[in-house]
Design goal:
By secondary structure, the protein is mainly alpha-helical. The protein has a single domain, classed as CDP-alcohol phosphotransferase transmembrane (TM) domain (Four Helix Bundle (Hemerythrin (Met), subunit A)), CATH 1.20.120.1760. The protein contains 6 helices and 2 strands. β1 and β2 form a beta hairpin. The longest helix is centred in the last third of the chain and has 73 residues. The radius of gyration is 32 Å and the shape is elongated. The mean pLDDT is 81.
Length: 233
């Protein structure tokens, strides 16, 4: 277990802390005489968790510690963090449910594409649109968290969430395009080759069976010629 993978797993453990801080009913808790409200606590947890996303990727590339488990866990951790924040915002009636469903549904769809691609031996890397979408998500959710108690931020937060929806749809289209261009064509070609190989085997079996049938018929004719009784005058 290297440090980048440990940071990825740590981001997953931040998810229940974020939900607990955001949906709890009390006003917060005091830290050194200062009242730390729920929205500020949840914002701090969310930003620290989002920071580990940048840090683990940077360290993995810099130290050349990019691993298969890290490649698979990193997007899962991101999606868990974002999904938990969105669902919690819907729970406290700050975010429209349809926005959360659309964004989370996009995340599951892209994860499914990546899983299929990984099973076929391909890795679909995050593109610039995906990175822009993630940045917009962090900014929009952060402002949305602050708008829980500060009503003046509700409109800017809602506009930012519209930006997240836009980049989510555009980046999803890009991922689907990569999938069909690389993986889907590769799968079709492989299945076509498998079917062609199977058909060739069937043709060889049929030719072999016809050859055996012809050989048996010739032997029968020869036997009938040899053992035919002589005519008596």
């Amino acid at each position: 277990m290297n440090l980048p993978n440990a940071l990825t797993i740590l981001r997953i453990f931040f998810v229940p802390l974020l939900v607990a801080a955001l949906v709890q009913e009390n006003d917060g808790f005091r830290l050194g005489g200062v009242l730390l409200t729920n929205e500020w606590l949840s914002l701090a947890i969310f930003l620290v968790a989002a920071g580990t996303d940048l840090l683990d990727g940077y360290l993995a590339r810099r130290w050349k510690q990019v691993t298969t488990i890290g490649t698979l866990l990193d997007p899962i951790a991101d999606k868990l963090l974002v999904s938990a924040a969105l669902i919690s915002l819907v729970q406290i009636r700050t975010l429209p449910a349809w926005m959360a469903i659309l964004i989370i549904g996009r995340e599951f769809a892209v994860s499914g594409l990546r899983s299929i691609a990984a099973a076929e031996g391909y890795t679909i890397q995050a593109n610039d649109l995906g990175k822009t979408k993630m940045f917009c998500q962090v900014v929009a959710i952060s402002v949305m968290l602050l708008s829980v108690r500060h009503a003046s931020l509700a409109r800017p937060a809602f506009l930012l969430m519209w930006g997240v929806v836009f980049f989510s749809i555009i980046s999803a289209i890009s991922y689907f395009g990569k999938f069909w261009h690389k993986v889907d064509e590769s799968v079709k070609n492989r299945r076509r080759r498998e079917l062609l190989t199977l058909e060739r085997k069937r043709q060889r079996v049929k030719r072999h069976q016809r050859g055996r049938a012809g050989s048996s018929g010739a032997e029968g004719d020869l036997a009938g010629t040899i053992w035919k009784p002589p005519e008596v005058n």
